[in-house]
Design a protein that fits this description.
The structure holds 2 protein chains of 2 kinds.
Chain A (H helix, E strand, L loop, with lengths): L1 H5 L2 H37 L30 H11 L10 H18 L4 E6 L2 E4 L6 H22 L3 H32 L4 H11 L13 H24 L11 H4 L9 H26 L15 H26 L7 H29 L2
Antiparallel strand pairs in A: 1-2
Helix pairs in contact in A: 2-10, 2-11, 3-10, 4-5, 4-10, 5-6, 6-8, 6-12, 8-10, 8-12, 10-11
Chain B lengths: L4 H24 L30 H33 L2 H22 L8
Helix pairs in contact in B: 2-3
Classes of the chains: A mainly alpha, B mainly alpha.
Chain lengths: ~375, ~120
């Protein structure tokens, strides 16, 4: 019984509640509607219609009419999910079975686990809106998200087929190269905020103004004005490496359709294929959320108090956080349908020669400004 | 350790989610009908030719080695960055010059790698 008493039940239940809220009520619906938004926005950009019909088939339940909500097509993600589950689930004979099954799960899990260090709101009914408020939050997110490489490499290797194999090795060197730039471009933020705890980084921005928009606290001094340039540079390098980390266009060489069929998931079908998809979009959301935390003030909006002033403000904080994430996701989609894909040597040159050097110089620019202005 | 207990719970939730979606699709999905074509590697409808895992450029290996070198540099920078402002207040700007020295040494290695062509993929 001593073991049962030693478990902090209140902590277990609140954090389970937060996990379930974050994963199943916010992020996974957001993932499926990002896929839908991707199809609609790409249609908009290419002057097509996109999926605009699928409603909810209420006639199956005995109603007279199907329900097709306002804009149409809003039932599409649910139909997609049902289709993925019901499709023929084939494991081809030539693959390495255990790893072939492990790979999609490994692509999905790290993206979900990184979310646990994310402060997605200030405070709601006296509970802090972060699943685990650890003091090495930033390092934790980098460390776990880099495990995502294994899912893709294993998929490429276990498929025992040429195109997945090429996609797998391409993605390894792409992801580790840009991980370097990503790590370096987060250092200026740490220099200014002085902590790797994501909640502390947000606290700093609440009091001193967002790092990318230092005017949000209502005052602006010379140091903040000087720091604006390195912060913009850090934001740009960070965003570019985040695009590469999540294998999004213009960096989607691991799965470039026109040369590698579908890259590392060529041999996959049904739900195993869908897990790669979910993993990619969850990683996109986690990456956008990290950008919001580091540069755009997290849940903070000017003139809106934090959640200790009442649950309604707490709810607004959560909504503003995910609002900012949604804006960045739209940016992801916009870029994808605007830019063409890089060649592999251009990709490596951009990562190792330009971004690496800019990020390194940027660190000393920030450090110099901090050291020599008082 | 209590800070990390919620992470353990999140890991459990993630594992349960990934495993259950795979199991659901096995249970509810159509049973696979096999044939010889489905059991061979996909090569755009042609019969597979040559090795399934062809030889590939040694550059991928070089990138992995350089990554380890420079990633350690990044890891060194994190604690430096966290204590930077407090250290400045107490001891002045020596912390800035010491890190500049450390990176200058590494830059020699980086410049060597660049001029050696280790990062040039167009050749």
């Amino acid at each position: 019984m001593a073991l049962l008493d030693s478990i902090p039940w209140f902590l277990v239940f609140t954090s389970l509640g937060k996990t379930i809220f974050l994963v199943f009520l916010v992020v996974l619906p957001m993932v499926s509607y990002t896929v839908y938004a991707e199809r609609r926005v790409s249609a908009l950009i290419q002057d097509r219609l996109g999926p605009n019909r699928t409603g909810f088939p209420l006639t199956l339940l005995g109603f007279k009419k199907d329900f097709s909500p306002f804009l149409g097509g809003l039932g599409q993600p649910i139909a997609d999910a049902a289709k993925f589950i019901l499709k023929e689930d084939l494991t081809p004979g030539h693959v390495n079975k255990p790893y072939f099954w492990l790979a999609p799960a490994l692509a999905m899990m790290p993206a979900l686990i990184t979310l646990s260090a994310l402060p997605f709101g200030s405070e709601f009914m006296g509970v802090k809106m972060v699943v685990a408020d650890i003091n090495v939050g930033l390092l934790f997110m980098f460390a776990i998200s880099s495990v995502g490489v294994y899912g893709i490499v294993l998929a490429g290797w276990a498929s025992n087929s040429k195109y997945p194999f090429l996609g797998g090795i391409r993605s390894t060197s792409q992801m580790i190269s840009y991980e370097l730039c990503m790590g370096l471009s987060a250092v200026p933020v740490l220099l200014v905020a002085g902590s790797t705890s994501l909640s502390k980084i947000i606290d700093y921005q609440v009091h001193e103004g967002w790092l990318l928009l230092p005017i949000t606290d209502g005052k602006l001094n010379l140091r903040e004005l000087l720091l604006f340039l390195p912060m913009v540079l850090a934001f740009i390098t960070f965003t570019i490496s985040m695009f590469a980390e999540t294998n999004r266009l213009p960096f989607d060489l691991p799965e470039s359709e026109s040369e590698l069929v579908a890259g590392y998931h060529t041999e996959y079908s049904s739900m195993k294929f869908a897990l790669f998809f979910l993993g990619e979009y969850t990683a996109m959301i986690a990456g956008s959320a990290l950008t919001v935390v580091l540069f755009l003030g997290g849940w903070h909006l000017p003139f809106i108090p934090d959640g200790s002033h009442g649950p309604i403000w707490g709810a607004i904080n959560i909504a503003s956080f995910f609002g900012k994430v949604a804006v960045l996701l739209f940016f992801f989609i916009w870029v994808r349908w605007t830019l063409p894909r890089f060649r592999y040597d251009q990709l490596m040159k951009l990562g190792w020669l330009y971004l690496f050097e800019i990020a390194l110089v940027n660190i000393f620019l920030t450090a110099g400004i901090l050291a020599f202005t008082h | 350790m209590q800070d990390y207990l919620p992470i353990l719970l999140q890991v459990v939730v993630a594992v349960v989610f990934a495993v259950s979606t795979l199991v659901i699709s096995v249970v509810l999905g159509k049973a696979a009908r096999r044939n010889a074509m489905k059991d061979s590697a996909y090569e755009c409808g042609m019969l597979p030719m040559g090795e399934a895992q062809p030889r590939f450029s040694v550059k991928f290996y070089l990138v992995a080695m350089l990554f380890i070198l420079f990633d350690i540099e990044v890891v060194f920078m994190y604690p430096w960055a966290v204590v930077y402002r407090d250290f400045l207040v107490e001891h002045g700007s020596s912390i800035f010059w010491s890190m500049l020295g450390f990176v200058a040494v590494l830059t020699v290695g980086y410049v060597y790698a660049v001029f050696k062509g280790a990062l040039d993929w167009s050749k």
